[in-house]
Amino acid sequence: MSTITYILLWPLLGAVCVAALPGSFRFAIRSIALATTFISMILAILLFVGFDASVAGPQFVQKVPWVQALGISYHVGVDGLNIGLLLMGAIVAFTAACMSSEIETRLKEYYILLLVMTVGILSAFASLDLFFFYFFHELALIPTFIMIGLWGRGENRNYATYKITIYLSIGALLALIGLISIYVQTGARTFDIIELTRLVSAKPIGAQSQGIIFPFLLFGFGILVSLWPFHTWAPLGYAAAPTATAMLHAGVLKKFGLYGLIRVAIPLLPDAARDWTQVLALLCLGNILYCGFVAMRQKNLLLLIGNSSVAHMGFVFLGIASLSLVGITGAVLVMIAHGFLAALTFALIGFLHRQTGTVEMDRLGGLLPRIPFVGAVMIMAMLAGCGLPGFANFVGEVTVFFGAWKVFPVITVLALWGALVIGGVYMLRAIRTVFHGPATTAFESLKDAVHPLARLSFVLLLGSLLLFGFFPRLLSDKIRPAADQIAAMVAPRETTAPVLAGTSAATDEPILRR
Predict the structure, then answer these.
(1) Could you read off the pLDDT of 355-367 as tens digits, one per residue?
(2) Tally of CB atoms within 10 A around 512
(3) CA-to-CA dists, residue 324 to 37, 155, 156, 390, angstroms
(4) Domain for residue 316, yes or no?
(5) pLDDT in tens, 332-361
(6) CB atoms within 10 A of CB 476
(7) Is 510 domain-assigned?
(8) Tag placement on the chain: N or C end, fewer CB within 10 Å?
């Protein structure tokens, strides 16, 4: 079996073992969840290290036919587009399991759902078959709804559960219509994404059909990613979700729609993708500017970070809309960096909420001297959210701006202003309000993170941001070949014939050398 299959099997095995134990075996249940997600994370790290960027096409591939009459197979593999996402997902899954100590009721059911959600998330990114690509995403969504409803926080958790269920169900339905339409239009009787891409490259789907199908995928995947103005479910959902659920959904599962646009929609419907780039670029400004202004008005720390998360998705959409090698590479970099950042910030806020019982910033203040470790990590995370150099977010956003500049100069300037000014204002204000200023007497007994598992989660996530921030080529060298292939496929056909050695097929710009 492929290493990828083992990465997916360990959380599934953990869910089965937890289901077989009595609910009173609390220590054993937690230990199994931690052990299986830890093994999965170690295997994902080994997979990432063993990935060879010089090899064309997917690696570590395993393909097992399932329904041969329809062309459905269990088909997994990694290339530059998903190798980093799989690594990020496995790390976030382990840290989410570490941060689940807040759960005290119905522990067995909680960890089963957490592990099933992990299996669905990782399998969705690893799948190279359209059927399982969609199926595993839906498998991961089901635990999300249940966990918010049963273990969520706040008076609005039921409202948030219904809202997130309705929005994501509509988005998934639109995306499903688009995926089925592609399958029907190709007439290939296969759900293999690699095979479909090859067939469409040789014989494209008609332009009129592309124009009908692409909006279903754009807005279907877009709703799943909280594309403005279909974003209002996200801040409420994350504010009501348990800490681990918010980490996994905002950090990892939310990237499914972005990955679907890059992996499926753009290469299979390139003509329509070019026609819709202006619309996507304008909508991404709604994410960056509107959600940024909303974040500035927030007094609830969870809602601030939730709106900030939606705003950061705008940078990914901008990179995708550029349809260039640099822009797509930057989009994937931001997806990975934001995954680590979102998981880290929600983990930190979850810790503060357990300690203080509130996330209202006006009720907090002067916390840094009392919780120096958590305070320092939180400040670094918020500075990473501002795009501070040294963190992976800075590398991804700068790459997106370079990729989008030639295509959308005005939109790029506005997006840059949103990142530097709006993002800086609400993040720095939150730092000042929560960690500096006069200390409130209500939290004199506040305790810093002393448990090794709690500190381990923060160190792993922050360390990942710093590692890929100081050494971005660990990611970019792996992403570039796959991003170049996508950019070449979507380039106007008259310009794609002769490709000069050492240049990008989509932009004729020199590819960065070592």
Answers:
(1) 888 888 888 888 8
(2) 12
(3) 36, 45, 42, 25
(4) yes
(5) 999 999 999 999 999 999 888 888 888 888
(6) 23
(7) no
(8) C
